[in-house]
Design brief:
Blueprint (H helix, E strand, L loop, with lengths): L1 H7 L1 H30 L8 E6 L5 E15 H6 L4 H4 L4 E8 L10 E5 L3 E5 L4 E6 L5 E10 L2 E5 L3 H46 L5 H32 L2 E6 L5 E5 L3 E5 L6 H17 L2 E2 L4 E2 L2 H32 L4 H13 L4 H24 L14 H25 L3 H9 L4 H30 L4 H4 L26 H10 L4 H41 L1
Antiparallel strand pairs: 1-2, 1-5, 2-3, 3-4, 6-7, 6-11, 7-8, 7-9, 9-10, 12-13
Helix pairs in contact: 2-16, 5-6, 8-11, 8-13, 9-11, 10-11, 11-13, 12-13, 13-16, 15-16
């Protein structure tokens, strides 16, 4: 019976089903872990005020959020300096990780506490969490609001006054950001273009008196606008920093924080569940739409999302025509023989080349050779500063297009091979040329296979990091590669990428504990971006498949 059961093939079906099920469980489990660890970071946790007995037996007042906990051996706790009376007879003791913030007073953001040594734990509603533009979170009790050194609010009304001051100052800094990035950024860009224009005229021996007057007039106009914006900027900065919030920490220190450095302030212990839900989604919106700050461990990741999607779109635009043309030649025009088989073997082998090799090739050939020659021919006025002779968006997109080219070629060729020969012969019999048959009949029917190749290319390219580190991606890009300045799409600019952002925050951050939740959140977002791009391509492919199914039948 068992021998017949094995011969029937049923065990292998069950084995296959088990492997697929286990893979799905693992994938869902990993995504669930990433989602919980990443998205849970933005929930406004309650803040504790603790009385803690340290290693020397001294009592300390500590304020902060419980972040994590674990069990350590009693011997390890003793080695860390804790007394035997703190540990007792237990083989393992619990320690808790507390985010204490207040960097100007503490040497570190996080601190491990022995759970047994926490003498008192309370959650005062008046405790305030302050998110700052610099130096991370601050925890304390709000005492007063000052303007130009004078107290303007204290007592019961100080919280409402502080919230109004923070909201008003946020609008001021929003205007500052608009001025710096848009108006002043556009003027700086225009001044740089004028400088390059002047240098170009000098190189061509066309730097005449008329050209001097023209450029001087344009420069004068721009500088007048620049001075006007700078004056306005100075006023806004003065207005944004004229007020300050005075806090008292849990251990009695009094600290004044300029309102201009405050992003948000809230009292988590006093918030209802619905208020916390609203705060949570506001923080998620900030994560998706804001620029990063604090060495990428705070704020948002919008530039990385923007750079990733733009790079993938450019890569897809570049790889698709080349991959399709190569596949059409190999399948429809090339004489099938030893050379063609050799080319196919080479294409298949290219798909297995490590991505870092493509990065080195892109840096050496595209950036230094091709980009350097482009600079010499078309941008001599920029020397010695490179334009295309340095890593940038275009070279990153081309490098990834080269990396994913074998995938598109193989998928397209497979699609072409599945089209019945009778379709081609029928088209030729009706008087169509070979090119017309290919263009109007064969390629449309093979378009679902092309989209399959594109889906696989997008899935691989969006998650690549190693080659991008060499050909264009950076930790922090000062400007987006697509903006309102001519020529609008700046292919020479460096850009941010979600994959590199994960690497940078996870492995290069000086504050590992603060960076960890952001690594999870960014990883989840990268998966969502890749799935979103793939779903868009799958939708198009399915539409094309339905459209040409009747012809294939």
């Amino acid at each position: 019976m068992i021998k017949q059961w094995f011969k029937s093939g049923s065990p292998w079906i069950w084995l296959n089903a088990s492997a697929v099920s286990m893979s799905l469980i693992l994938v869902v489990g990993i995504l669930g872990l990433i989602a919980v660890r990443g998205l849970g970071h933005y929930w406004p946790s309650n803040v504790a005020h603790l009385q803690y007995r340290d290693k020397d037996g001294q009592m300390q007042d500590i304020t902060g959020e419980f972040v994590d906990s674990n069990e350590v051996s009693a011997q390890r706790a003793k080695d860390a300096g804790y007394a035997a009376t703190d540990i007792g007879d237990d083989l393992e003791v619990e320690q808790k990780l507390v985010k204490i913030g207040n960097r100007e007073l503490n040497a570190m953001d996080f601190r491990w506490l022995l759970a047994k040594n926490i003498q008192k734990e309370e959650y005062p509603e008046a405790l305030v969490v302050v998110e700052r533009r610099e130096y991370g979170n601050f925890y304390g009790f709000l005492v007063a609001l000052k303007a130009s050194g004078q107290i303007v609010a204290n007592g019961p009304n100080v919280w409402e006054a502080a919230q109004k001051s923070i909201a008003d100052t946020a609008q001021v800094f929003k205007e500052i950001k608009q001025l710096e990035k848009k108006e002043i950024g556009a003027i700086n860009y225009a001044l740089e273009r004028l400088r390059l224009k002047q240098r170009s005229l000098e190189l061509k021996n066309q730097w005449t008196d008329e050209a001097k007057k023209e450029i001087a007039a344009e420069k004068s106009t721009l500088q007048t606008e620049y001075q006007s914006y700078q004056s306005r900027l100075k006023q806004l900065y003065a207005k944004g920093n004229e007020q300050s919030l005075v806090f008292k920490t849990g251990d009695g220190h009094e600290v004044a924080i300029p309102v201009g450095k405050v992003v948000n302030a809230f009292q988590p212990n006093a918030m209802s569940v619905f208020t916390k839900i609203g705060h949570y989604f506001a923080k998620l919106g900030e994560f998706l739409s804001d620029d990063p700050r604090e060495a990428n461990t705070e704020g948002g990741i919008f530039p990385a999302i923007y750079g990733t999607v733009l790079m993938v779109i450019l890569m897809a635009i570049m790889v698709t025509p080349f991959g399709v043309v190569a596949a059409v030649y190999l399948r429809e025009y090339a004489k099938q023989g030893f050379t063609t088989r050799l080319i196919r073997i080479a294409v298949n082998n290219l798909a297995g080349v490590p991505s870092i090799v493509y990065g080195v090739f892109g840096l050496g050939f595209f950036v230094y050779i091709l980009g350097g020659n482009i600079d010499q021919l078309f941008y001599p006025e920029s020397a010695p500063s490179p334009v295309f002779g340095t890593p940038g968006l275009m070279w990153a997109s081309i490098t990834l297009a080269l990396l994913t080219l074998p995938v598109v070629i193989v998928a397209t060729e497979e699609g072409l091979s599945r089209i019945p020969k009778s379709i081609r012969e029928g088209s030729l019999a009706l008087g169509a040329t070979k090119f017309e048959t290919l263009w109007l009949t064969v390629l449309p029917m093979a378009s679902p296979a092309m989209m399959t190749g594109l889906i696989l290319a997008v899935a691989r390219a969006a998650g690549e990091v190693a080659p991008l580190m060499l050909v264009g991606v950076v930790k922090l890009a000062p400007a987006l590669p697509l903006d309102g300045n001519f020529p609008f799409l700046h292919l020479d600019r460096k850009f941010m990428h979600l994959g590199f952002h994960i690497y940078d925050v996870g492995f290069q951050s000086p504050n590992v504990e603060a960076a960890r939740p952001l690594v999870y959140a960014t990883s989840l977002l990268l998966v969502i971006v890749i799935v979103g791009l793939n779903l868009a391509a799958v939708t198009i492919r399915n539409h094309l498949r339905e459209k040409y199914r009747a012809l294939e039948g």
